[in-house]
Amino acid sequence: MAVPTTKAPEINAFLNLLMGKDRVETIKANKCMFCDGDAKEFKNPSSEHEYKISGICQTCQNEYFA
After folding, report:
1. Which of 5, 7, 20, 23 could be joined to 11 by an S-S link, Cβ 3.0–4.6 Å?
2. Range of the domain at 22
């Protein structure tokens, strides 16, 4: 279980509304906010930290940040 970073309640509420799912619960379940796929393996600690911030899996990070 990943531990999501803390955000202001208003930011979490906005992200939940925007994405249609709960950011905190999605990250705790090791799922991706974008593709709903598994988010358990990362290429480096920076990518894993990004996941805890955004909830974006390694595959989606590769596509989004390419």
Report:
1. 7
2. 9-64
pLDDT digits (tens, 9 = 90+) for 30-59: 999 999 999 999 999 999 999 999 999 999
Tokens of 39: 């988010």
Please check whether residue 35 lies inside any domain of the structure.
yes
Q: How many domains does the chain have?
A: 1
pTM of the model: 0.92
Flag whether 3 is in a domain: no
Phi and psi based region of residue 30 (left: phi greater than 0; alpha: psi -120 to 50; beta: remaining): left
